[in-house]
Each structure stands twice: as structure tokens, then as C-alpha cells.
Design a protein that fits this description.
Order of helices and strands: EEEEEE
Helix content: under 10%
Radius of gyration: 13 Å
Strand order of the largest sheet: 1-4-3-2-5-6
Distance between the termini: 15 Å
Number of helices: 0
CATH superfamily: Translation factors
CATH topology: Elongation Factor Tu (Ef-tu), domain 3
Number of domains: 1
Shape: globular
CATH class: Mainly Beta
CATH architecture: Beta Barrel
């Protein structure tokens, strides 16, 4: 665990995450490519690139670092306004 003061400390930001326990509306992991994702409720959608690792794990790499990506929280993936599904941040 890392503890820092302030909301802008660089250690609070990450550019990538792994997600497991995946669930997608059509039952399939979307093809590798560019999507939008959220890692926190009410945050702005952020551009990211999805890469399938295996049938139950994906890598999301964000264009801009994201604040407070937290294990156990959900990563939700969108294609435009359509929610595709997501998984649990590892």
C-alpha cells in the first residue's frame, strides 16, 4: 500500500490495468482495439486500448493516466454510447 497526500500526486495515476471475472453483454470479449472505459463511478469515459490476454483476462491501456485505479473495483468498457460490459480490476 502507498499513502500520499493530495489528489494530484503522480503515484495515484496509472495508464494500464488488468481485468478478470469478465462479463460482456453478448457473452464475448470484444475484439482487440480502441474503446472507452471507466474505472470509477461518474468519471469521464477515457480512451483506451483493449487486448485480450485469455478467456477471462484483458489488458486496458489508457491514452491518459487515470486516477486511483483500484483492485476489486469494476472496469466498464464502452463502444460509443453502448456499454459492452467489463470486469473486475486485478
Amino acid at each position: 500500500m502507498i499513502v500520499v497526500q493530495g489528489h494530484n500526486h503522480p503515484l495515484l495515476y496509472k495508464k494500464a490495468l488488468f481485468a478478470i471475472d469478465l462479463s460482456f453483454a453478448d457473452g464475448n470479449i470484444p475484439p482487440n482495439g480502441e474503446y472507452m472505459a471507466k474505472t470509477r463511478y461518474r468519471m469521464q469515459d477515457a480512451k483506451c486500448y483493449l487486448s485480450k490476454i485469455d478467456d477471462n483476462k484483458i489488458l486496458l491501456e489508457f491514452v491518459e493516466p487515470q486516477l486511483a485505479i483500484t483492485s476489486g473495483q469494476s472496469a466498464v468498457i464502452y463502444d460509443g454510447d453502448i456499454c459492452l460490459g467489463g470486469g473486475i480490476i486485478e
